Sequence to fold (140 residues):
Amino acid sequence: MFFISPQAAIVGVVIVIALVLALRSSGKRFWVFSLVPTAWFLLFYGFVLRAYLTLGYWPSPYHPDPKDLAFDFHHVAIWFSFPVVVASAVVLALLVAYYARSYMGSARHRLGMLYFAATFAAWLLAVRFDPGRFIEWFVD
Fold:
């Protein structure tokens, strides 16, 4: 398992707070936060694919160091996305608790909650079991 640096956690929480404040409509907030795990998968595995296309082989732990690939912005974005995914679960739970009546009455919101639960569970499983050992490679 890996640990997120305090700086990355703080920046991730600030990003989440900025999103909450920027999106005026509770419906928009709900959908943005329900899509966060999907965005993480696209961002992370896009980085892995980019590494594969650059190197000509799939990266493996300690070979090569992801920082040496010169994808600096992409690399930093992934580090900051880890706490954002975790914070999105908390924010989404708070939004559902606060707007429970309107969210539970809407089939769209129930579908969104189900989608978030499935993608968040997939994220947890990917981080825990690390198929392909790409997360281990990324954090080494």
Observations:
- The chain has seven helices and no strands.
- The CA atoms of residues 103 and 126 lie 28 Å apart.
- The chain has a mean pLDDT of 81.
- The two ends are 11 Å apart (CA to CA).
